Input
Amino acid sequence: MRRAGTEILDLTVSNPTQAGFEYSPEIVRAFEDPRILRYEPSPAGAMDAREAVARYYASRSIRVDPSRILLTASTSEAYAYLFKLLANPGDQVLVPRPSYPLFDCLAAMESVELHAYPLSYHGQWSIDLDALAKMATSRTRAIILVNPNNPTGSFLKRAELEHLERFCAERSLALISDEVFSDYAFGPDPERASTVAGIGQSLGFAMSGLSKIAGFPQMKLGWIVAAGPAALRDQAFERLEWIADAYLSVSTPVQHAAARLLAAGESVQRQIRERTRENLLLARQLLAGSGASPLAVEGGWYLTVQVPRVRSEEDWALELLSTCHVLAQPGFFYDFESEAFLVISLLTEPSVFREGMGRFTRFLEVASVQ
Output
């Protein structure tokens, strides 16, 4: 349709640099530091960059010593490092379902098997802890959390984290927490567990990066924060440094620019928070009484919409595209266990989002009864 010149209203936008946000000139000036011309490799990353990451956590009332922070080029690379650290070929890692579809590819490249534990929905999302426990075997090495989950937008709760910490300590498992969307909550919740960076019972790793928290996917800077009992954590971190030393993938310029990039990214983050909140409110208003139901969402950039099961998710997505020129993602992209769901990006530019959602709701009036 695009090759034919058809204008598509894309409700799947995930790249903030192509979503109409205003980026400060300070971002370019951040690379004027003369230190970027000198190569002084450090496996865990330059200390000034690690200290900048520690200040990011401190601003959120989370104390993280820079010595527990290891820089990576991305969270995808962080997953690869952690799979190398924790698992041998054929070992297993538990991942949430539904969740981001990249896990299968990352695990396959490390010869690690994934077993999916379910997230249950009863007006809000929660981890099915009983099902998770039954899935752990003698070959299980880690449990992955996505906090908040992508695409459900559900945060880990304190009670869930306490349960998982005990479970992992008893089984000698690690908790891996992907926290790239943690700054994008739609409201406060005293029961929320925002990070595993401070856990002490079991080995844990919190991951994030500039891609989401600052809206800079092009800068390629992520990190791992190691947590847990000191001896176990320090041993794991030493081995992570050995792995990182074999790659040295993080560029010198972005490391020395990290502090200024994190500061400049606060403006982009505010813009993203404002837009996602406004688009979420609009979506709920437009979908009210439409026959489709927006599921509860606590944070992140996405909204899951349950549509009538009068056709498959793929047919919903294809008919919405062919009839209304609106692009949404079917739930099976994210491994939803049942149908029918569509996933919509709240990052979409407001004018496109309003028109696209308007067409979607009008389409629902006809399609739901066909």
In short: The two ends are 24 Å apart (CA to CA). The mean pLDDT is 96. The first strand starts at residue 9 and ends at 10.
